[in-house]
Amino acid sequence: MPRVFITGLGFITSIGNTCADVEQSLRELRHGMVKNPAFAADNIPVKVTAPVRDFKTDAEDAEDWTIPAPYNLKREQLRSLSPNALYAFCALQQAIADAKLAPEDVSNDDTGLYAASAGSPGIMSRMITRMNQLGVMRCPPLGVVASIAGTVQFNLVAHFKIKGASTGFTSACAASAHAMGFAFDEIALGRQKRMFVVGAEDGNTETILPFASMRALSLNPDPDTASRPFDKKHDGFVGTGGATVLVLESEDEVRRRGATAYAEVLGWGQASDGHNVAISHPEGAGLATAMRNAFKATGVTPADIDYINAHATSTPIGDASECKALRAVLGEHAARIAVSSTKALTGHGLSLAGAMEAGFCALALKRGFIPGSAHISELDPACEGLNIPRTTEPVQARAALNNSSGFGGANVCVVFKAVS
Amino acid sequence: MADITLSTQAPDALSQSFSPDDETALRESLRRCSPATVEAAIAYRKGGDTKALAVIIIGIFERFVEPDLRARLAGDCDDLRVIEDLGIDSLTMMEIVMLVEEVTKTKIENDELRGLVTIGDIKTFVDCRARGVQPPAPAKSILGDELRALMPIQAPFLFLDEARVGPAQCTASYRITGQEFFLAGHFKNNPVMPASIMLEALGQLGVLHLLAGLPVEAGKVVGASTIFFASTDGVRCSRVCKPGDVLTLTIKSKRVKEPLAVYSGSIRVGQEKAVIAEEITLTFGVVDAPVAPVGVLPVAAS
Q: Is B101–A135 a contact, with Cβ atoms under 8 angstroms apart?
């Protein structure tokens, strides 16, 4: 079975738009939260979000968006892009450059792209409003492809002339972890030599605020503490958007190109809670099974693992059930293995989360650090028995897990190994 | 659920009342267009002056074409083909049509849109719609066997590969293959399309117009054997054309009254002007249409 390596990364996130910036934020625990001016109204109880840096995509007309250098898109490209597809577009350019891929490496029968995005509720709602107010023939001609859940792969596959496998995943907060897992399979099964894995979200009012009535968002108005997974006072997640792209390549391709890998992807596991449409299983049953399946698939045991990037979004129920799953699966190693949630810095990126955090794991394994879990002043008693470092340590982990859980009780666990 | 009242207006109905809200909406819709476009649109919507339509349409095209192609829209641009010459794809065309419809309160159906190839076609179409008259039949494509069957001129002296023939304007293309017999001697070791042959090609397009584009009274046709070259005036050649060049030929009818048909003509290669002829005049005669065209190839001039 071909081995699979991560050879390129692209980040457009709340904590940085380059690998270097992201690494610095992870090392120094610099978060990306701000008080969102759009949430200022008294009837909006949520105040903090983690906006994508340097981009402004609030305007209805994409030609009014602010897109920072070095990215430069034409009107013909912009008109079919949702904000999240724009972020993905830029992150993919970045990842291609990072992996030093030539145009012929990107566009060929053996290179595919799997993406995860919830689509663009903002663009969708403006299109439907326009349809109702002005008539069906006044909708933007590309409003559908800019707004439905496949928007990221539609745009990227067409623009970057991707010719291999392409599709999208819609398991909400586990979606880009699913994209990662199935992209791994494509290469491991010998169907593709290279896969781009993309996670992206708008991270704007329309994607974040609908979670408020679900009581899933933090009402803490202080950007410095609003997102604090595993802290006793965690009260919900902080929304974010952006995009992350990972380049996965077969061992043969890595050799042929003389590429430098960030990390090896050993494999993955998944399982479902079969419990509730939106609430995680109280014992973390599905997540525990996903981790066990990942160990089974890769032959790795908890003894081999030094770091786990937890899904932990900063909601009391979700964080607690993940802690139970971790203790159940890790056994005697629970007290040793470093567990952190980088969502304390980034906020929760929903469909973006799995890819973004896989990118963080790859960066950490390559650059020799273990990200700390920020903003904990008093550990939630539910975390008892786990090793949750509060600062980033310059420690080289041998292998890492990345957990993701989505609506419907979908759970994914991906295993990464450092490249020596 | 209560009735949903859509604010779209019936096709061709230009509102007599143009409210400040309408003006605000119009300015918003046209905010990426030139001030002249906005003013023309307001003038049109207030007063119904159809002369403003051309300014509006050009202004909307300007907003959508790539900046480096915008200069082409200055001056006479009626011959410019939307797709080939302005690089506008079908999706951008939908955006343009939508904005033209919204601003001019007209309606262009999909099947009508397919017949609109040049800026001139669109201007004429919208103008007719605004004035409540029937737009002209769209230009039709003629090529291959159909073209050869229609034309009294044949190889090796036919210099039209394919043509679009309308009632007042025709365009055609001809690729110089290098196999044309006269290129062997024109010039020695340096094949150049003779200017006289390029004028001939424009004249041939005039012949095609008379046979397939010109509206004539029922029961009559232009006799293919009655058409001859009469005169030409104001000819300027500005580009040497060689094998491999694709000539884009355009003629516009200036006056057509039996026995004379007067055209202006031009030839371009890509966007480069090659030949201008201010006037090309053909003579022709109208004859009775054949009663029972037995054994005759069907012609497009039906």
A: no
Helix (H) or strand (E) holding A34: strand A34-35
Strand (E) positions, A235-355? 242-250, 263-272, 307-309, 338-340
The interface residues of chain B toward chain A in range 201-240, judged by CB-CB distance below 8 A, are none
Given a cut of 90, whether residue A173 has pLDDT beyond it is yes
How far does A141 lie from chain B, in Å, by closest CA? 7
* Mean pLDDT for all residues in chain B: 87
Q: pLDDT tens digits, residue range B119-146?
A: 988 998 999 888 888 888 778 889 889 9
Q: Spell out which residues of chain B touch residue A76, defining contact as CB-CB under 8 Å.
A: 89, 92
What's the CATH number where A321 sits? Answer: 3.40.47.10
Counting the structural domains of chain A, the total is 1
Instruction: Name the fold adopted by B140-288.
Output: Thiol Ester Dehydrase; Chain A (3.10.129)
The SS3 of residue B86 is: coil
Residue of B nearest to A79 (CA): B92
The CATH classification number of B20-131 equals: 1.10.1200.10
The identity of residue A261, as a single letter, is A
Q: Which of A76, A130, A145, A159 to mutate to test the interface with B (most CBs of B within 10 A)?
A: A76
Active site residue A311: yes
Under an 8 A CB cutoff, do A134 and B32 touch? no
Spans of all domains in chain B: 20-131, 140-288
A137 touches chain B (CB under 8 A): yes
| Residue span of the structural domain in which A137 resides | 4-418
CA distance A72 to chain B (A): 15
- Res. A160 pLDDT band, cuts 50 70 90: very high
Task: Please tell me the distance from the alpha carbon of residue A202 to that of residue A348, in angstroms, as a whole number.
Answer: 12
DSSP state, residue A65 = -
Residue with token string 């004539």: B216
Domain pair B20-131 / B140-288, same fold: no
Q: Which helix (H) or strand (E) is A144 found in, with range?
A: helix A143-147
| Residue A169, CA atoms < 13 Å, CB-side half-sphere | 31
Cα separation of A239 and A207, whole Å? 8
Say yes or no to pLDDT of B302 above 50: no
Could you tell me the CA-to-CA distances from A381 to A231, A232, B207 in Å, in that order?
Answer: 9, 7, 93
- Contacts of residue B267, defined as CB under 8 A and 6 or more positions apart, other chains included, come to B198, B201, B202, B241, B247, B248, B249, B250, B273, B274, B275
Task: Using alpha carbons, select from A152, A306, A112 the residue that is nearest to residue A244.
Answer: A152
The ipTM estimated for the assembled molecules is 0.77
- Cβ count near B137 (within 10 Å): 11
